[in-house]
Amino acid sequence: MVAPMTSPDYVPAMKKSAAIITDQGGQTSHAAIVSRELGIPCVVGTEEATKKLKDGEIVTVNGEAGQIFMGANVKTQVSEVKTDDKPKYKNTKTATKLYVNLAEPERAKEIAKKNIDGVGLLRAEFMIANIGIHPKEAIKRKVQGKFVEKLTKDIEVFCKAFHPRPVIYRATDFKTNEYRSLEGGKSWEPVEPNPMLGFRGAFRYISSPEVFNLELQAIKAVREKYDNLHLMIPFVRSPEELAKVRRLVAVEGLFEKASFKFLMMVEIPVNIIQIEDFIKVGIDGVSIGSNDLTMLILGTDRDNSEVAQEFNERTPAVLWALRRVIRKCSAAGVTTSICGQAPSEYEDLVQKLVRWGVTSISINPDSIDRVRGVIAKAESDF
Q1: 30, 42, 159, 230: which one is catalytic?
Q2: PEP-utilising enzyme mobile domain: which residues (predicted)?
Q3: CB neighbours of 360 closer than 8 A, spacing ≥ 6?
């Protein structure tokens, strides 16, 4: 598949693709994230693939090296490919939990068989994109029951496969441009100049509680069978927002069972600055979304290939932010995790996170055994 850029509504087509090529994007773009989970070769940020490649042409894609060759069966050379090539760690256990980032129900059983402690990030967007209809449109047509039923069924697949290991469901974090691609979406969504910083996250749940309630109904239904499902709130702009969302969750009765965990994504600078105030609202844990956090700290668009080289999760400012959150949360008895792309890429960052006392690290499925080994070595070094 060749496209200017991908979004969640592209996922059905991406599943059928032998490889993915985009004009725009970086290593944390939608195309890169999805292709890693699906195990499909991908090259992003080519700038002109849609202009140079034509329908029907055969190409060979080397996703590891970022190369595209005309023709089939082209011999490519790959150096230092980061794969799970350390079988000696496949049964290793570590004090630092190792979680996995997932989105596709079809992969749940397969991944659950690996040496993994749970799902640290279950992305709602892919499941809702598969449902296809905008939630407000579903409510308007009085088919919200089917919406909840389908979402419940998909979430249940993960919880059953991983039980009793935890599954952290991140509430829907579609941006308005992504919501518009759903059936009926154009009738409900504004056209924003900058959706990344627009109508999304916690503010959206507060503004449209009837939509958020559909997700809460699904979570409650799944938890009647599997108590390993927990909820994480993304893109929270203030402690006040978090408190309002927490009340919505409480109304649905999810806090009635002590086993339920309520978590928050840390992905905006305000989450770092006011972490102690967010903790006071009442959270059981946080997960650092290093992709968005790095972008917003450095002022670098992670999906813009023009400035992709400036996107660096290991700059002093980002490392300071990670360390601050881990230490403040640890002192308050709040668990910490990180679910961005960085831990899957950089072993030195994993070592720092372990040294600072992070509770868990959530990574891509293709990095499980390798990162487990890095964690084990880091723990043995101190």
Answers
A1: 30
A2: 1-66
A3: 96, 97, 98, 99, 117, 118, 120, 335, 336, 337
Which of 42, 159, 329, 339 is catalytic? The answer is 339
**Domain boundaries defined on the chain:** 2-70, 87-380
Query: How many percent of the chain have pLDDT more than 90?
Result: 72
Tell me the CATH number for domain 87-380: 3.20.20.60
Q: What is the pLDDT of residue 75?
A: 63
**Upper half-sphere CA count for residue 196 (Cβ side, 13 Å):** 15
Active site residue 339: yes
**What is the Cα–Cα distance from 351 to 371, expressed in whole angstroms?**
10
Cis peptide before 105 (omega within 30 of 0): no
The CATH superfamily label for domain 2-70 reads: Phosphohistidine domain (3.50.30.10)
Q: Beta 67-70 vs 119-123: how paired, if at all?
A: unpaired
pLDDT at 25 over 80: no
Q: Which of 61-65, 254-258, 295-299 has the lowest mean pLDDT?
A: 61-65
Active site residue 30: yes
Give percent above pLDDT 70 in the chain: 94
- Is 8 in contact with 181 (CB distance < 8 Å)? yes
